[in-house]
Give the backbone structure.
Amino acid sequence: MNLAPLAGLMFGYLLGSIPFGLLLTRVAGLGDIRQIGSGNIGATNVLRTGSRSAAALTLLLDLAKGFATVVIAAGWGEDAMLLAAGGAIIGHMFPIWLGFRGGKGVATALGVLIALAWPVALAAALVWLVTAVLLRYSSLAALVAAVAAAILAPFLADGATAAVIAGIALLIILRHHANIRRLIAGTESRISLTKG
């Protein structure tokens, strides 16, 4: 029995579930990020503490764990790699250490995409950047980028990888359900770079 795929899934989940946003804000003396802003542990909410450096480091580390998961699990075979990729996103979104209440998975997904199919990652990142700069909604930028990644994946990646990317995009969209409601209601918070 080949246990590599299961090992890849579990490895991805455990690495993905490391809550860097929470750990960094505590180390920096910024309080519990879950009690600030949206309560999310991701970089966008860390930015709401006023610390751009903590937000940037959170973004980098969340991205790095997604990338590292895929690169390491690739040595165990394609199935293990693809399951690890999905596991990393699920781990970030639903970490066992935080009662399964984690982040939205956007930065971790970008890290996964860079390792799985860098052209898709590049396109999605550009879509996110343009949307965020023009409209100043991080959540909307993430949603548009996720859709773009799912649409482009079949043209820029092999079938199995494209299917995993589509699954990740769907998870990100579903995880933004509250943001979607606020966007429709016109109450979603805009990105602000004016603090500290």
